[in-house]
Fold each of these.
Amino acid sequence: NARVPGALDQPVTLAIDGVTVGTGSVVDMLDGPFGALAFLARLMGRRGRSLAPGQWISSGAITGVHPVGPGQHVRATFGSAIAVECRTTGTAVSEAIGGTQWTPQP
């Protein structure tokens, strides 16, 4: 809840297969989450589209952008109270187009 004092100061950590690959905080983002939302709303308006109530919006890459391969487990933690995680499935893009196998880097 962004209205709670200090909510935007919470540390964010991203781990892939249990290895931390990125850290940050919301306040470190250029223009913050509200700037990202304003940008999206302006862009959608220029394209004649609108945002729907309850629609999920990604407000940026707080911890940076990190490659994730098939079968890897990704966990993002926000402070000490919130975590979001998933395991990827499918085929790596490079495999699908006949390229070389992607190798994860620590």
Amino acid sequence: HHLKYLLKNSTISHFENTNTPNSYLRLKKYGADPSLSGENITVISFSETNEELIAINIVNSWKSSPPHNKNMLSEYKKSAVSCGQGVFNEFGPEYKCMFSNMVFYSE
């Protein structure tokens, strides 16, 4: 859901200009009843098509950011990850980019 929004709008944001503006409301829309939720998002440019290297770069970008790393190390009970290739206007149309979204929650 949120990944499609990021790709369509070529943006990187935790919020949407929709009826589900944040991760908590998006989780509720799809049937979860979160007592606690968090979200990591990132976009990286890449030239290689090695999926393992792309995944390593995504995780390393989150590990190097204290709030994102805290989400990954917290005691959330569930998580979901989505990735998609697109264009990030801030990098320019000539760059291949991978958008990634990871949501964490406990019910």
